[in-house]
User: Which sequence fits this backbone?
């Protein structure tokens, strides 16, 4: 399939680079559906006669596979270009839905694990990193803005998939008007088939729209010497193999891990947490379930907006400084949330909104941070390896929060004080992340790839 | 640039603008719908 090769995607002269962000968004908006699984979670519990945990495993497998496939396939993505990567991601993601629907129709939960979790999860990982390196090359002047736009799509995908899935489930289930309605398994299976068709069309649109810039291309008016002037920004290149041997990679890994773990702590518990914070002495909460659902929606918007706004801001402030804000200001906000969050709902909502915007910003700024430190050569592959921090945080965040809450009492009886140990643990984590980010210095020259215009061209980059 | 004034170049610019508008609409419209739907839920927070 030569038409997917990188060589066939080189942009002709005059190609408008602003066509690349919508191509990237088309993929990220589709794979962002992964965060909208709660829409049919109860329906699957009922259909399979399974526990919430057993159904939750579907999502966990998908996220673990995201991290693993991004780490393992990153070099392949960089080598083969974004079109082949997006096409491959579409095949895996759509196949995941098809196999998953087969599992639902035949009542075989393991097929849903295999389909949506394992196969779909590979599509998630490849799709997530597929446009990153290309965007950075098209926007050397604004890499944070460019990757922020794409990664914002991952947050936005759930905002679209939730209402669309709810509407489709109602359409496919003849009993949707019944009181206390839970969607049937059949309607969830049909939903999976419909999403497969829609996502295939969108992701292929992305794959056939994206192009890579020709070698040596630069945007009009771009002055590379200005990039060189920033202390942490390199014009050298480091391979993915060498990047993981540097201190800088692991410091950024720790910073991202701490930022994501802290954010997930709030995201996972968002709805019950706001109710618990405003629980009165008689056990009733001042916050209703509908208001709590509105709060979860607001956090989704904060997550999405933070990805774009903070990442774009990092082009002006520099990546290290913006991470100091995510982690340092984030820690202060967490302390405020722990000690004063229960005083008014407005303060609570504002603090949580900002914290979640920092969580999203951490994700979206990471590729540009890696570009600054390691160059553009294999930034996609390095980003893929960094995403293992996300997988690890996806396990650690809920574990920490749930372990503390379990020790404090039973769900429905917790109050603001019950959350203090968990929140203060998150503060400690953010401080560790802050220190790790503070220690990031330029990468040692021995890790740089040789350049043909230099005497040390015969000297290979450090290999171990 | 002088080449931008040739008929061929002008047609290319128009095609590029049209393609750009379609591409952004394809992703922008669903995203705006998703944000709108979410904001209607958020309204319960301040209602």
Assistant:
């Amino acid at each position: 399939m030569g038409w997917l090769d990188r060589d066939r995607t080189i942009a002709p002269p005059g190609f408008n680079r602003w066509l690349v962000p919508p191509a990237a968004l088309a993929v990220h908006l589709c794979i962002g559906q992964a965060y909208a699984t709660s829409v049919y979670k109860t329906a699957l519990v009922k259909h399979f006669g399974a526990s919430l945990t057993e159904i939750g495993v579907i999502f966990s497998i998908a996220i673990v596979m995201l991290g693993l496939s991004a780490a393992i396939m990153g070099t392949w993505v960089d080598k083969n270009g974004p079109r082949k990567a997006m096409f491959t991601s579409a095949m895996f993601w759509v196949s995941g839905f098809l196999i998953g629907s087969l599992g639902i129709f035949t009542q075989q939960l393991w097929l849903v694990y295999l389909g949506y979790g394992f196969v779909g999860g590979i599509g998630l990982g490849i799709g997530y990193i597929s446009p990153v390196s290309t965007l950075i090359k098209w926007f050397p002047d604004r890499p944070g803005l460019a990757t922020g736009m794409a990664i914002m799509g991952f947050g936005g995908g759930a905002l679209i998939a939730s209402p669309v899935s709810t509407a489709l489930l109602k359409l496919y289930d003849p009993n949707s008007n019944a009181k206390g309605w839970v969607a049937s398994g059949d309607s969830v299976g049909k939903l999976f088939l419909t999403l497969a068709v829609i996502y295939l069309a969108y992701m292929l649109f992305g794959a056939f729209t994206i192009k890579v810039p020709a070698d040596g291309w630069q945007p009009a008016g771009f002055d590379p010497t200005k990039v060189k002037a920033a202390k942490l920004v390199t014009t050298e290149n480091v391979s993915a193999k060498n990047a993981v041997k540097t201190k800088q990679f692991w410091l950024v890994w720790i910073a991202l891990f701490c930022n994501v773990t802290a954010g997930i702590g709030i995201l996972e518990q968002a709805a019950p947490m706001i109710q618990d914070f405003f629980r009165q002495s008689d056990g009733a909460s001042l916050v209703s379930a509908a208001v709590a659902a509105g709060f979860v929606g607001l956090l989704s918007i904060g997550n999405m907006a933070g990805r774009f706004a903070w990442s774009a801001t990092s082009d002006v402030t520099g990546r290290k400084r913006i991470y100091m804000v995510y982690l340092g200001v984030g820690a202060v906000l967490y302390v405020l949330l722990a000690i004063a969050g229960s005083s008014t709902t407005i303060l609570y909502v504002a603090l949580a909104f900002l914290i979640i915007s920092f969580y999203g910003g951490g994700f979206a700024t990471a590729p540009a941070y890696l570009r600054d430190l390691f160059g553009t050569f294999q930034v996609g592959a390095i980003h893929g390896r960094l995403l293992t921090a996300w997988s690890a945080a996806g396990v650690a965040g809920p574990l920490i929060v749930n372990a503390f809450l379990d020790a404090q009492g039973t769900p429905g009886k917790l109050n603001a004080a019950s959350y203090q140990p968990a929140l203060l643990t998150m503060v400690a984590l953010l401080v560790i992340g802050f220190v790790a980010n503070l220690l990031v210095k330029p990468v040692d020259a021995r890790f740089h790839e040789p350049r043909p215009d230099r005497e040390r061209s015969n000297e290979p980059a450090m290999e171990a | 640039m002088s080449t931008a004034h040739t008929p061929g170049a002008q047609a290319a610019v128009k095609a590029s603008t049209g393609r750009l508008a379609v591409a952004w609409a394809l992703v922008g419209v669903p995203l705006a719908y998703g944000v709108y739907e979410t904001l209607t839920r958020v309204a319960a927070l301040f209602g």
